[in-house]
Amino acid sequence: MRDGQIKGLPYLITLTQSINLPFGGIKPKPPVKWAGGKGQLISQFEPLFPKQEFTLYIEPFLGGGAVFFHISPLEAILIDNNPELINFYIVVRDNLQALLADLEKHQNNKEYYYSMCALDPDKMDAVSRASRFLYLNKTGYNGLWRVNKKGKHNVPFGQYKNPRIVDKENLRQVSRVLQRAEIILGDFSKGLVMLSNSDTPFIRELYEGYDLKVVYARRAINCCAEKRGPVSELVVRNYI
What positions does the entry give for S-adenosyl-L-methionine binding (predicted)? Predict the structure, then answer.
């Protein structure tokens, strides 16, 4: 879908049909590392996916897009409030060849890394900006994306010996799936939904009457070291 137009695709599909759609025989993987990513939860999510037909997949907190890329729906609206992330996905969708060419220039060393951190993305063209974003994501510590009050990227160099900055085949598959998506910069209210993955009494009370399922994930990022590791999160469904 682009600008509200559906390009000759059927309106109704089942989730099974969507997941099994062929794309060169390769299912796309999330192209970026992302804190709170749901890739490790897919096996727990699958029994909870809707069995009925649906017309549109809306993802209000896109991030790494693990669920979106796993489902690979025929029509989607993808939303996130991170301008670097959204620009990256739009460039992958609309200008992949230029991005692949630009990614070849990057170097895996500390001096070059911090020179890229220092650049102002608002003064870069879309392709260079997306290339910088993916490079910093793949070579920064733990795949974090963090900026200071001045908007400068301030994640330390990851010191990975041989990071895979460019996965051309996966990016091609990602680009194909994104052709069917409208990509929006904004907060979750753009999708007219309210979601939370926190398994707390407050959230349980807030969603009383909905179907609640607990899933378990390992989270490596928390300001309190003792809170890193296995945690319980909540899936809230308005269907059975």
Answer: 34, 38, 80, 199
Place of tokens 């993987």: 29
Q: Is 80 annotated as a binding residue?
A: yes
pLDDT digits (tens, 9 = 90+) for 174-223: 999 999 999 999 876 655 443 445 566 766 776 778 887 888 877 655 55
Which among 93, 205, 114 has a CA at the least distance from the CA of 236? 205
Torsion 124-130-136-137 (CA) sign: positive
Query: What's the rounded Cα separation, in Å, for the pair 132 and 102?
Result: 9
Question: Two tokens at 26?
Answer: 């390769």
Q: How far apart are CA 80 and CA 83, in angstroms?
A: 8
Nearest to 19 by CA among 109, 35, 45: 45
Q: Where are the domains of the chain?
A: 15-195, 196-240
The reply to whether the predicted model has a pTM over 0.70 is yes
Give bridge partners of residue 59 from the DSSP assignment: 78
The helix or strand, by DSSP H or E, that contains position 85, with its residue range, turns out to be: helix 83-94
Query: 199: helix, coil or strand?
Result: coil
Could you give the CA distance from residue 203 to residue 25 in angstroms, rounded to a whole number?
40
pLDDT, tens digit, 9 for 90 and up, residues 23-52: 455 689 999 998 877 877 888 888 888 887
Residue 145 in marked binding region: no
38 is in an annotated binding site: yes
Q: pLDDT tens across 104-116, in order?
A: 999 999 999 999 9
Q: Which CATH class is domain 15-195?
A: mainly alpha
3-state helix, strand, coil in the chain (%, to 5): 40, 20, 45
Cα–Cα separations (whole angstroms), residue 124 to 87, 120, 128, 162: 11, 7, 6, 27
